[in-house]
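ok so i was messing around last nite and threw this chain in just to see what happens. nothing serious, just curious
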Amino acid sequence: MHPEEIRNPAPHKIVTQLLETRDRDGKLHGGYGQWYVRNGRRELIGHWNHGVKHGRWRAWDPDGRLILDATYVDGRRTITRVYIPRAATE
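result:
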């Protein structure tokens, strides 16, 4: 399913659009992405290798701030950086 084919059933809530591919066995494989429907910003980007996370995965909050940066090797997380966004100053 392509992201543009998904409609937001509840516009007042944060809903995600997905971009995914699968291998012959139906396991997630290849680039993967999620976007917040309400504002179109990235939520999660990563890579699947025959059903297991592999490579760099990053996550953002709805305001577009990076909150997680992790690296996986054959499904095992090897490096993780968690970011705590600063509150907006007035």
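not much to say yet. The longest strand covers residues 42-49.
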